[in-house]
Amino acid sequence: MENTANSQQQAQQTQKSQQVKRTYTKEAYQNGFFGPYGGMYVPDVLKGKLEYLAEQFEQLKNDRQFVGEVNYYFRQYIGRPSPLYYAERLSKEVNSRIYLKREDLNHTGAHKINNTVGQILLAKHMGATEVIAETGAGQHGVATATAAALMGMKCKVFMGQKDAERQQVNVYRMKILGAEVVTTEQGTATLKDAINVALEYYVKHPDVFYLLGSAVGPHPYPSIVRYFQQVIGQEARRQILETENRLPDNLFACVGGGSNAIGLYSAFLDDETVNIYSAEGGGEGELLYKTASTLVMGSPLVFQGTYSYCLVDPDNNAVDTYSMAAGLDYPGVGPEHAYLKDSGRAQYYCVTDQQAIGAFRKLSMLEGIIPAIESSHAVALAMDMMRERTDQVSIINLSGRGDKDMGREMI
Ligand SMILES: *Cc1c(COP(=O)(O)O)cnc(C)c1O
Fold this sequence. Notes:
There is one protein chain. This protein is an alpha/beta fold. It has 2 domains: 7-32 and 79-109 and 230-410, Rossmann fold, CATH 3.40.50.1100; 41-75 and 112-221, Rossmann fold (3-Layer(aba) Sandwich), CATH 3.40.50. Helices cover 44% and strands 17% of the residues. The protein contains 16 helices and 15 strands. The strands form 4 sheets. The chain has a 6-stranded mixed sheet with strand order 4-5-15-10-11-14, sandwiched between helices. The longest helix has 17 residues, at 44-60. The relative contact order is 0.16. Residues 110, 112, 139, 214, 254-261, 327-328, 372, 374-375, 399-400 line the site of pyridoxal-5'-phosphate.
């Protein structure tokens, strides 16, 4: 992607961001807010449930038995810790030092399982008898169905009819794992309609636990998802100190809702020397209607229960986003990222489908690692920014493996 308009734009953004005064402070994190972002903007019927969830979560994360149980399943079931792998041939190619945090090696092949196993244990300890989730491309649905099977818990996954038709293999997976897939023909029969139906069900059934898939939505979900994903950063920090004997200069991650990114970043936010770079789904270009780059192109807005950035049309309605990476194809983003952007602590870039495909092929051929197309966005950004930066040490969060992304357009 050298010499493209995009890389010039990125160079300018980098220059600008170096001039931005960093106003990030830990004190901005309070009661479900990240600076002005976050909060619980929901109808009263939901408020009570979410406040109870927040209370139970606060208690359980300080409970040694609960934490021990989470750690047990992380190790024995997911296969943690995941390696921090020095990508020697990739490093040679760009002439810099690049490590990959191998979340693609987790059971089920991505970071999502950290969160679903964590939340299913939360559900169990809260006495829930059933979990529900909504899913677009099916990845979160499969991760939830997996965790539900592990705990022998009843599981319903809500899905738009159109998505279900497009994602038949994931529908089979969920059914094989024992979940019930509930489809809806409402609206456009896609993710946002599935969310509405799931919320209706949630309000009507008091003993149901809503298992949310990313660091988005109303408080306490962004904090809960962060808590279960922060293991990524904790491990990476320990691992890089062991091998390099110092902190990295740069972190790279892709951002859909923002959970794998927050997982990695959380352990380094207070280390001022560590730069943080995030890749959003740029789709086919940089047109508002052909992108999923929420923080680069969107505006602050209350959307789906939280105050954060959102991609909206001129009437302030959330737009139908586009990215070939299903995991990045979402008009909202977690509120902590909105704060990290505004405070200058992290930078956000638009990476197009074509750039991601280029990185997908490069990493496959150079390292024998086929990355998820989502993760490939972070690889593309890192390769672009770190070219000839011989003195720099970087960590890329390889959020998932690419088996799901096989198709002719990748060759
Ligand atoms: C779902 C998914 C993402 C995007 O979700 P985040 O919450 O932003 O992490 C990224 N990579 C993979 C492999 C995914 O499955």
